[in-house]
Amino acid sequence: YNVAPAFYNTYNPVDKRRETILTSYYSTDGYWVTSNDIGVRWDGYIINKFPVETATAPCYGTDIPLARWADVLLMFAEAEVRQSGTAPSSEAQAAVNEVRRRAGLGELSASATSGSETFLDALLTERGHELLYEGIRKIDLIRFNQYARRTKQCKGTIPTHQYVPIPNYDVQEARSYGKTLVQTYQRVGWEADVSSAR
Predict the structure, then answer these.
(1) Distance CA 105, CA 107 (A)
(2) Proportion of the chain in helix, strand, coil states, percent, rounded to 5
(3) Is 0.90 topped by the overall pTM?
(4) Does residue 13 register a pLDDT over 90?
């Protein structure tokens, strides 16, 4: 797993969360590997967000986070704006700004809070920075109908599907029970997302 340089460059230089991404390292074969070696010795930057699990502090092998306060705040802000369909309330802005302050950043800009679409775009970027390597980025991008666009921006390719296709053996087994499964599924908005990525 690695971070595409294009995604790394979306972080504000003073964002403390950026420090969990290694942009250079000393390899075991004696080379200092830098961003100039991307495509030669490595594919992207190294995520160093979580310490190696040990039987002692600071990272016990059995510590499994069930929820993160930052995720709760960001989900609240998203739900509030999606429900109202208008510019974010002061509560939604405060929730996102609380996450940003912990990362050493200032409040969202006036342009980011001027309407629901600009706020949701800023919120998606914030979720990407805050929740990096926590296994929810793809689902976030799909939910926001930006999976194809943002993948193209950061990786240079357009994905062929939003979701992994259902395995053929599941389709055949369902048929034996008299059920019909569709092998692939896409959300409303997928075609527009792909078109805008081209």
Answers:
(1) 7
(2) 45, 10, 45
(3) no
(4) yes
